[in-house]
Specification:
Elements lengths: L4 H12 L2 E5 L4 H5 L1 H9 L4 E7 L12 H16 L3 E7 L9 H11 L5 E5 L3 H4 L1 H17 L2 E6 L2 H11 L11 E5 L2 H10 L1 H4 L3 H10 L2 E7 L5
Parallel strand pairs: 1-2, 1-4, 2-3, 4-5
Antiparallel strand pairs: 5-7, 6-7
Length: 227
Amino acid sequence: MDDTAGNLRLREVASRGPVLAVVAHPDDESFGLGAVLAMLASEGAEVRVLCLTRGEASTLGSAVDLAQVRREELAAAADLLGVRDVVLLDHPDGGLHEVDPAMLDAAVLDVLGAAATLVVFEGNGVTGHPDHRAATAAAFRVAADQGLNVVEWGVAPAVADSLNAELGTEFAGLDGEGAVDVDVDRKVQSEAIACHESQATDNPVLLRRLALSGSVDRIRIHTATGV
């Protein structure tokens, strides 16, 4: 794997200490953050995941108890990614943006531990999902209060534009100051994605996004010092 500027910066993140990914739904850690989390774990960082909802409102999957199915899928995927621990909360799927922000901040603080860095979707939630935006906003507020680093994950503007034109989605591209590309290995991420069988089956948006992104992810790193 090439030592791009993004790869070097992720290695620096791994060297700073434990990492906590803050996501809205089971599968966000794999479909979105998977390659980045796997890379951080492979570089020696202790990686944990906080998932704020059980994903029970998904329109994909026909399980009688989708929340339980997705809990098991999340556990299996996290194990493959090298995640040390997963905390799964039961805030309302599809209604996370309506939860008191102070409650979401408290949830992040409660599991923060020794984390030096939070890993999140970019500020617009990547897909425009209000739950994604709420999870990211909570992480940024806690990071600012606690003096932590943040890694934003997103897609390149060209990828977002293609998805929106082809599939009628509302992806937001991650661009501007500090945005860098990272060369990633999709193998472990693909295996983790496959664990989310209820959500990965018949998911053309996911498949097309991965095809358009190839072996490159887009991130922006905010350091506690602003550098």
